[in-house]
Amino acid sequence: MIFLATIFLSLLSFTKASSTFSPARPPAQPLAVKSPYLSAWQSAGSDGGNGGYLAGQWPTFWAGQILGWTGLINVDGATYSWMGAPLYVPTVDQISYSYTSTSSVYVLSVEGKVQITATFLSPITPDDFQRQSLIFSYLNVEVVSLDGGEHDVQLYTDISAEWVSGDRNTIAQWDYGTSGSLSYHKVYRQTQLAFSEISDQTEYGNWWYSTTTDNGYTYEAGIDVDVRAQFGNHSTLSDSVNTDYRAINSNWPVFAHAFDLGSVGTRSTSRLFSIGLTQEDAIQYDGANGVVPLPSLWKQYFDDEISAVSFFQNDYETASELSSALDRQVQSDSAAISNDYATLTTLSLRQAYGATQLVGTNETQYVFLKEISSDGNVNTVDVIFPAHPAYLYTNPRFLKLLLAPLFENQEAGQYPNRWSMHDLGSHYPNATGHTDGNDEQMPLEECGDMLIMSLAYYLASKDIDFLNSNYKLLDQWTQFLVDEALYPANQISTDDFAGSLANQTNLAVKGMIGIKAMSVIASATGDSSSASNYSSIASDYITQWQTLGINSAANPPHATLAYGSDDTWGLLYNLFGDKELGLNLVPQSVYDMQSDFYQTVNAQYGVPLDTRHSYTKADWEAWVASISNETTRDMFYSDLAKWINETPTNHALSDLYDTVSGDYPDGIFFINRPVMGGVFAQLVLDMGLSP
Ligand SMILES: *[C@@H]1O[C@H](CO)[C@@H](O)[C@H](O)[C@H]1NC(C)=O
Ligand SMILES: *[C@@H]1O[C@H](CO)[C@@H](O)[C@H](O)[C@H]1NC(C)=O
Ligand SMILES: *[C@@H]1O[C@H](CO)[C@@H](O)[C@H](O)[C@H]1NC(C)=O
Ligand SMILES: *[C@@H]1O[C@H](CO)[C@@H](O)[C@H](O)[C@H]1NC(C)=O
Ligand SMILES: *[C@@H]1O[C@H](CO)[C@@H](O)[C@H](O)[C@H]1NC(C)=O
Ligand SMILES: *[C@@H]1O[C@H](CO)[C@@H](O)[C@H](O)[C@H]1NC(C)=O
């Protein structure tokens, strides 16, 4: 089988013109990635992807199900497909694929006659909440002559109803409408299921596929093969809507826009499309006043859905400028470290933001985050923690708004345990808490995470009110750490898939850094006696920890995975908090020792997470890299960049992979998790936070 597959693949690559990929060929290419529900990708890795080509394969939702999204073009009377897999027409050739932090750009050639540049822009505007609150993404298609001649060109694109439900037997309904120059198809689930998901797709709200009308515009909603054949044979659509509302998979209804571009020469012409979701209410939330629905934040800025859709469609110029400015910032800050590092950050930013959503009102705003793929939990503390460098670097306030609902719920007495809760609800979008205290328990992990992130936010913002209003809870968690951090009980850490363990060296150091963080918080808020008490406890613990958790007789010496297990080791990523916050709790000699040690245990695609398995975590590798010496740092980043280019995984960036094969470890598929925001750790250190 393997032999046959190899022959087949090489035949394919022989017959197909090959594309370049810059700065890398990611396992899946982000197309429209803006929220847990607007998350469309093009699968590339060899486990099932086509190598990274826009044509010849359907885009998929992050969880793998097909999202019909088609591009056709007629050039001098012949039809070709440039996106998706309507198999009856030839595909265009792909010249290049490139990505930035906010866009994916495909350059395509139609028989060397006409060039198509398809730009998928998912804007990220960290401190412009009006724009960030819109769950929409652009597709801009530019066409120009490649051979210098004039060509007769018509452009076509459609979406299927697969976007509106995770169950393909669900009945969809639709409308076509206009508002000024806006033309839209609105598609939705006929029976709305509020706050529900099927296969991680949302089951309520309205989907919009829009364009700006121009000369030669036509539209149609109907049966997929009929609508596409209409375009292929007649070069225009029928301006009609088939209203036989039916199941998504029954004669597959599609929603199409077409433009007759006329004669296209060396002067390019472009058409703009946008795709997105509106939901009036976004989250069910157990805050201070019991469970209430929270509205999507875009509702504060727009009177109705059409105004929001219209604004987005007409905002391309500004959205592009803002996104390009962010692209340039991430690129230049990252390239100052290395090009390999920039490969990581630019691919991860959309994924980090794409798990979040702005909700609430102008008075009370929140950010909610879905623990995508691993379990769907809401605002999981130990998922926000690895991801938080991306938010801290782009806008510290975003981090505050992620933490806010966790504090509010617990301060209202909705969580009975003395340690921090793990998450705010078992499944997005129900942030209904855990009044019974039976969440997945990682007590030491979450207390340390909350303290470290709270101080990080304060140091970046100087928002003393935040510390004052949450002081009591922060102090309660610190007391828990004082009791538990020196000799951690048998428990799981955030790496729960690796199993539970007593006396975890890495978990202990997080607790100690958390106690030290609280001493800075106490000092900032004027509680000087607690400040000195916690500071001396943290120092005392760290001194003991250097004996308990380090095998100094080994050659080379290294921290152990658990106290007294001399032959074990792991990525000591929790040291990052000490450097991030400028605490100087842990002696530099420990960093140097670890940095030297990692060089001796590096595998094909990186350093394993610990001695129990050959897999690793990309986010934690990046944390460790940021606090290692430059040689070790570059080793980590170059292995990660190599892994991105070569991994056979074919879904949105996994944070968990095997360091030898580069594939998913047996049976664990982590896909599209926001924790990849952890690659921004290095840029957070560049912020130079200190008490
Ligand atoms: C959220 O809660 C509602 C009931 O309020 C339920 O119908 C829905 O299925 C839940 N959603 C998820 C994703 O569990
Ligand atoms: C023209 O129409 C026929 C019949 O509907 C269809 O099979 C064919 O694919 C169409 N041609 C193109 C180029 O779309
Ligand atoms: C919310 O604030 C924005 C300005 O930041 C303003 O344009 C909008 O009207 C406000 N919305 C409401 C409902 O007050
Ligand atoms: C220091 O803090 C610990 C833990 O909260 C507490 O038990 C102890 O009494 C405190 N010591 C002083 C001197 O305040
Ligand atoms: C943790 O380590 C200490 C010191 O080696 C030991 O006394 C204790 O039993 C260990 N805890 C557990 C739960 O194994
Ligand atoms: C980093 O540490 C390694 C191992 O000790 C050493 O070989 C290398 O020269 C160091 N690199 C830098 C830039 O100091």
From TrEMBL:
Q: Where is the Glutaminase A central domain?
A: 338-683
Keywords from the UniProt entry: Signal
Which parts form a coiled-coil structure per UniProt? none
Signal peptide (from-to): 1-17
User: Domain of life of the organism in this record?
Assistant: Eukaryota
The processes (GO biological process) annotated in the record are: carbohydrate metabolic process
Q: Where is the Glutaminase A N-terminal domain?
A: 102-333
Against InterPro entries, the record matches this protein to: 6-hairpin_glycosidase_sf (IPR008928), Glutaminase_GtaA (IPR052743), GtaA_central (IPR032514), GtaA_N (IPR033433)
Entry's PANTHER family? GLUTAMINASE A, GLUTAMINASE A-RELATED
This chain belongs to the protein called: Glutaminase A
Q: Which organism is it from?
A: Talaromyces atroroseus
Q: Please name the taxonomic classification of the source.
A: Eukaryota, Fungi, Dikarya, Ascomycota, Pezizomycotina
